[in-house]
Amino acid sequence: MSNRWRLLLIGVAVLATVAVLVVVGSAVRSLTTLEGVLSDPGSIAESVIDEVLSSIPSEPALRADDPLIASRQILVTENINERTAKSVAARLLYMDALDHKRPIDLYLSTQGGWVDSAFTIIDAMQLISAPVNTWAIGGCYSSGALILAAGTGRRFATANAVLMIHASLDEDTKESYSYEHLALARYEHVWKTRAQLPEDWFPMVGGEEYYLSPQEALQFHLVDEIRPQPSTSLAVRTGRHHSAEAQRSERESGEPSERRVRP
Questions:
Q1: Where are the domains of the chain?
Q2: For the chain, which has fewer Cβ within 10 Å, the N-terminal or C-terminal residue?
Q3: Is the whole model's pTM more than 0.70, yes or no?
Q4: Residue 45 — very low, low, confident or very high, per pLDDT cuts 50/70/90?
């Protein structure tokens, strides 16, 4: 074999070796990056959520003639996140500017969500003058129940509602200026001042979930009232029905009806 071909083969071998080393190095870096992502998936999840939220079209401008705004009602039926917090807080501030004395009704049917976003809504409720009545309808879980408890007016649960309190925070690191310490302190402050929960539910860390019926929520002072009250409402409707039927019978017969309706 001539020297020229020998040199050509050596050059090809060197280039192939370099290419393999580059590929291996790239694979190692990719695996290292993947390992870092898997060890802390929260950063990737937050980035994805931010991208999704930013892609959602902005809401139309608030108008005083909007039916819900005119009736002083806000309905939340999605997860508590930055978008939800912005929408609810904006409506609270706008309704308060229209009339700072009339109550506002905030209806909550949510699986929960980000605690920081929940406190955006809570802070907005506390900043305005108008009292905010909070309602648990359907399922009101985690951050939704937190907002419910922090209502500045009356707090209600519908008869069919299910509530859930979630001990979802991280352990307090006991380090100065740590987020965990501040988050746990403000989270527990709401539950200790706005409800009377069992002592063994504290500290509220570890991921435990406590599901409550409306009656249990009332017992723990998480709500002030259950609406509607089926037995009372049924009695009122039945009494009215019987009264109208008795009057109609009297008109038709010309004689008082024998049916007696308990007042």
A1: 65-228, 236-263
A2: C
A3: no
A4: low
Superfamily of domain 65-228: 2-enoyl-CoA Hydratase; Chain A, domain 1 (3.90.226.10)
Locate 22 and state its tokens. Answer: 């580059």
**H or E stretch including 97?**
helix 82-98
Residue 236 has which token pair? Answer: 């009122």
Closest CA to 105 of 33, 158, 155, 51: 155
pLDDT at 177: 86
What per-residue string of b and e applies to 115-127 under the rule 16 or more CB within 10 Å gives b? bebbbbbbebbee
Q: Averaged over 120-145, what is the pLDDT?
A: 98
Using alpha carbons, list the distances in angstroms from residue 250 to 26, 247, 254: 94, 5, 5
- Alpha helices, DSSP H only, in 128-229? 143-149, 179-194, 214-219
- Looking at residue 200, the DSSP 8-state letter turns out to be G
**Strand bridging mode 225-227 / 162-167:** unpaired
* Catalytic residue list: 142, 166
pLDDT at 187 over 80: yes
Q: Which of 158, 124, 143 lies closest to 191, judged by CA? A: 143
Instruction: For residue 68, give both structure tokens.
Output: 């819900």
At residue 253, does pLDDT exceed 50? no
